[in-house]
Specification:
About 55% of the residues lie in helices and about 10% in strands. The chain is built from 15 helices and six strands. β5 and β6 form a beta hairpin.
């Protein structure tokens, strides 16, 4: 979020939530953490969970927040349900020492919808989200806001894979031998750089490499330095073409790329899909998934995770002779 964008009213704040989250929240509790009046973090959890204590605790412990604005988005819920849920979330934050709180409720984030202050019961109107300064900045940046979290989750849904592609990937590994990893990483790097859609055949080779060579997998994390948005989009496409342990590994990397590109909801959807796939394939390696998912759940800043990409760049160079761009000063 740009420091130059000023939010002048509660209606504007609620209208800005879709842009800040990357999707239009529904049945949600959104917590906007502030420090000296400036927003520092935003977190969302499902309505009915009482707030995500682990995330809130991690954010508060950074000492980068001294106040919070809680917004309950809960169409179809009774006022008593909303009031009880807001009280539960507020109690969690009070326990963490955040005493400066504003709590609002709105059935939906739509222009003209009514918001209610759950402390004073003052009401107002939600501004049209498409008219906010945040929305304008998003359009100028070439980004889009998803209509819902389900729309983001659809980016990681499996479309299917062919046995022939997996067989050809194994054959390629046998033929290329020690050069297999280097060739696959180089081809994937070119695909990210040129923003091409990866073929099913390349996806199969990537899946095989991710599940058979941990060092190569760590090198692949360095591709985020090329262009994290392109890397995220490319790996999302790869995940749709795989299944089983290969899909779990690809979803983990795709989620990581989204995470370091400040696409928290995308990362969460990718990690959720990976967990679901791993449940169906118990032999899947979920160690990296556990690491990055926990970091996301506890609110670790994306720049803290970018160090893994820097390490990946070094591995790509030292182990596979692949020169990736060196992380710039603004990377971490």
């Amino acid at each position: 979020m740009s420091d130059r964008i000023q939010i002048k009213s509660t209606g504007e704040l609620i209208a800005a939530l879709p842009t800040m989250l990357g999707f239009v929240p529904a049945s949600s509790i959104v917590m906007a953490f502030l420090n000296a009046g400036a927003m520092t973090f935003i977190a969302r959890t499902d309505f009915g969970t009482g707030g995500r204590a682990l995330t809130a605790e991690a954010i508060v412990k950074t000492n980068a927040s001294d106040a919070v604005v809680i917004v309950a988005v809960a169409k179809g819920r009774t006022f008593r349900e909303v009031l009880d849920e807001c009280d539960r979330v507020s109690d969690v934050l009070l326990t963490l020492g955040v005493t400066d709180q504003d709590v609002f409720y709105t059935p939906s984030v739509e222009g003209g919808e009514t918001w209610t202050d759950m402390r004073t019961f003052e009401t107002g109107t939600v501004v049209d989200p498409s008219t906010t300064e945040f929305a304008a900045a998003t359009v100028l940046a070439g980004k889009a806001v998803a209509a819902s979290r389900d729309e983001i989750a659809a980016r990681y849904r499996r479309e299917g894979s062919k046995i022939i592609d997996r067989r050809r990937a194994r054959n390629a590994k046998e033929v290329m031998g020690e050069n297999f990893a280097r060739n696959v990483i180089s081809e994937l790097a070119d695909t990210v750089t040129e923003r091409r859609e990866p073929s099913a055949a390349l996806a199969a080779r990537i899946g095989l490499l991710l599940t058979t060579d941990i060092v190569a997998r760590d090198a692949i994390l360095g591709l985020a330095v090329i262009d994290p948005a392109s890397a995220s989009e490319t790996m999302a496409t790869v995940t749709r073409k795989l299944h089983g342990p290969e899909r779990v590994a690809a979803l983990t990397v795709a989620g990581f790329f989204a995470y370091v590109n400040f696409q928290g909801p995308d990362a969460g959807c990718a990690f959720d899909a990976a967990r679901t796939e791993a449940d169906q394939h118990p032999l899947s390696d979920t160690r990296l998934l556990g690491l990055v998912d926990e970091a996301l759940q506890t609110g670790l800043h994306p720049k803290k995770m970018r160090g893994l990409s820097g390490t990946g760049v070094g591995i790509a160079r030292a182990k596979f002779g692949i020169e990736l761009p060196a992380p710039g000063n603004n990377w971490i």
